[in-house]
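Chain A, query sequence.
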Amino acid sequence: MGHRVQFTCFIIPFLCLFSFLVPSAYSKFLNYNFYDRSCPALPMVVSHNVRQAYRNEPRVVPALLRLHFHDCIVNSPGCDASVLLDDTDDFKGEKNTFVNRMLPLTFEVIDYIKEDLERICPSTVSCVDILTLAAREAVLLTGGPFWRVPLGRRDGTTSDPKAVAQIPSPFDSLQNIAAKFTSKGLDLTDVVALSGAHTIGFAQCSTFKRRLFNFQGTGQPDPSMDASFLSNLRQTCPNRADANSNRVPLDSVSTYRFDNAYFENLAGNTGLLESDQALMTDPDMAALVNIYRMYPRFFFHDFANSMVKLSYVGILTGEEGQIRQNCRFVY
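Chain A, predicted structure.
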């Protein structure tokens, strides 16, 4: 597929185990201590609000992670909080597109964090940095890895609803998904590692039902699916239009725990989305799936590194963009 998976961390594991580092080419733009003096309460405020939201509705945690990904993976220009902007009479953005309309609780969480921060350190912390930190807290809260988040991004002033076409779809081919990642400077290791975010969260039946009843127009189920898994899914997602909005865990083994069970599922042909199970059709990606399945610490390491890489896509710094006082609007 043009880009091979890199296995350096598995050849020299002890060199990689402690390498949650920002690539040197990026270090001049952001730094870990950006708000230490101007808003030292930032980590505590983000953590408190994400935890409170999780207690009220556990589904908000995977949604926060997804929202951060949706913000960064599109060229608008990238990680700039464009996904948070409300539509107005003369402005239409990404927020109310179909892929983001399903994440309403996440917008409220970011609003609460921003309101708290504006009282403590007004006009200081960007909405995109809030979203980036909230995604890390969501992973940590559900048992996933901790990583240091470089900070100092600025908020964008535009948003393009057409840009959401760049978000990988459960109906995309593996080749198209890989192309969407590599066009943002990510690689195939990032594809597999970030796909592991599907160890938490849910999917609507409409996103995978064709696998159950009409795979690739054959009128038959996906032959790669485990038979028992297929039978159970057909009960939850019968072949009727009124079942399309039913929700199924992306990882039924540990729905609310961030772990490597997702990769166990793929190896056992019980991946839920067609795009997820497709990882097993590429030899390099399948090899990485099996490594993550057997060695969860390697998955955690690569996931953290990939999240840092993702958080640099299309960033605005210095005098670019702005610091919004309300994440829903530019000023």
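Residues 6-22 have pLDDT under 50 and may be disordered. The longest strand covers residues 202-204.
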